[in-house]
Amino acid sequence: MKNTRNFCIIAHIDHGKSTLADRLLQITHSVNERDFQNQMLDNMDLERERGITIKSHAIQMEYEQDGQKYLLNLIDTPGHVDFSYEVSRSIAACEGALLIVDATQGVQAQTISTLYQAIENDLEIIPVLNKMDLDAAMPEEVEDQIIELIGCNREDILHASGKTGAGVDKILESIISKIPAPSGDPEKPLEALIFDSVFNSFRGIIAYFRVLNGTVRKKDLVKFVNIKKEYYAEEIGVLKMGMLPREVLSAGDVGYIISGIKTAAEVKVGDTITHVARPCEKAIDGFSEVKPMLFAGIYPVDADDYEELRNSIEKLQLNDASLTYTLESSAALGFGFRCGFLGLLHMEIVQERLDREFDMDVITTVPNVQYLAHTTKGEVVEVHNPSGMPEPNYLDYVEEPYIKGTVITKSDYVGSIIKLVIDKRGMLQDQVYLSTDRVELRFEIPLGEIVFDFYDKLKSISKGYASFDYYQTGYEKSKLVRLDILLNGEMVDALSTLTHFDNAQSFGRRMCEKLKDLIPRQQFDVAIQAAIGSKIISRETVKALRKDVTAKCYGGDITRKRKLLEKQKKGKKRMRQVGNVEVPQSAFLAVLKLD
Fold first, then answer.
1. Domains of the chain, start order
2. Could you say which DSSP state residue 368 is in?
3. Residue 42 pLDDT level (bands cut at 50, 70, 90)
């Protein structure tokens, strides 16, 4: 145990985490040259293309220093704010962390939030300045930021370059000298933390875990504490580039367990594994159910593909346990699913994976968050879908989720970012200058306001500089209304949205104007109305296509023309009663891009 080191890497998106991990793998000869490719630990094409880590990975490396052999367990973490729960579990499985900061960009928002989690877990932090080979590197400035953040000495900060491999040997020496060996007792009852799980179509669910206390052997009968189920450990082992079976894993080890589990819901990240015969006293702290923050309907473009979509989402859920879904039907779009996501990036990734891995064409409705509706009878209804909102006469008040957001930006853009926050019903709480030209803004804002286009606008205002991080704080009372869109008096449920009362009028008007351009002209007038309850707040009309029935009248009495026009009017009226309006797919997508 004294020669084992467990560590993770903390970094903002695109600060060179995966590239540095590649160099560590090469120097420790954990991967042979023939099998090597860039971003070794990111094994999804999507991760490589976007340059982000979506799933956390773990790998064991062997390194020799001063004649001693050391086992280094690297637990890689996703960098994006949507996956913060997975990051927290990976941190709980380690004793130390490499804090990687891009020497050209400096400290960013997500680095800070993850760093605070690591400090709360008493991890030893090793600061590393990456991308030192670039001409744009600003080592002195960024060192000042790191010293202010964690209070270390200037000489503690390591300089490295993931691209060229410079300084990586120094990082390995620091990991061995600074990060403490795992403290745990192999004789105590088994206590192991699950920090990730993956699905294998032949073996079922494979859970990755870190043993904190005790020893686990192959064929032991173990139980997962939070879901209260028992399994035999059919295979246990350590994670190299592949999986290497072992007979025994004891305190301090990181490995995997295969126990023939077929349903993803039975393995929860953050759960505790212990023996059935000699269980530990209590589960490891910090376990929580992964709660979706964002809900959207996913429907097949062709209604006949419904069963296929169901199978695709089921298979996808095995690899991504944080995706939740329930059945939903819509008058406009047919049968589909209401899916819960961790955030906007997560939603984009799920859509992309459905398209690539399962070849599914889907329509996604407007994303919305979970609201709590309090009825006049004193009941509390969870609302994931605008159509689930109780009628106004039964509604007492509505609560919506709020978040605390942090934006780090250059001081030139402060004014326009504050304006954006206030436009989105946010409240500025704090403004801290990290250096002469870098500001940290903290604010409270409704979650429903940022799921739409907040991030895109923030990036365009700050020319790509600002970094954004958030966490949910709870629910607050809010004046929300359901905005319905009616076509010829018929409600189109898939276009309904929940919005704040102050924004409803302008939002409804913009929706009607947009739909007027998108809905094709019919043989009769199509009335497009935006309504709150029974009150119409905006209206546009798509004019009918008209045949000139009076063209054959040359001169003569006006009554001849009027007779023909009356006849046409009757026909149009009858047609409006039997005719129905087809809403094109572009209309559903247009709502997402109203601005």
1. 4-178 (3.40.50.300), 191-275 (2.40.30.10), 294-367 (3.30.70.870), 372-478 (3.30.70.240), 482-592 (3.30.70.2570)
2. B
3. low
